[in-house]
Fold this sequence. Notes:
Elements: H1 10-13, H2 21-30, H3 41-46, H4 63-73, H5 76-88, H6 101-113
Helix pairs in contact: 4-5
Amino acid sequence: MILEKNEIPYFIKIEGCNNCKVSQAYVTKTGTLYENGHTLYAKCIHMGCDQYGHSLEVPFITPKEYVRIGTALGMSEALDKAKKIIVRFFDFYDTKGNLLPWVIETISQENIEKPIHIKVAP
């Protein structure tokens, strides 16, 4: 089953919570990575990531990154985690944890279609 482009989860579009503006704002505000009950948790709910079980408290790490870590450190746990994510989101990833071409194309197309707003000083 291939999902419509508007059904690609936000955390997959941005390729992991580390690229999320909510995560970056939290790190800027607190100076730490993650903390239980963080003040920006509502944003994780608003972005839709929480419905999949991901937030700043439980960040989404891409399968590709798990594969890289697992291979570099010889950690079978990381490779198992990558496999589980690929199985759960098989519509979006190939067997190595890379985004499938149709996902990349859809995301690229969305970026092209978004209007660009330019502020001009008076």
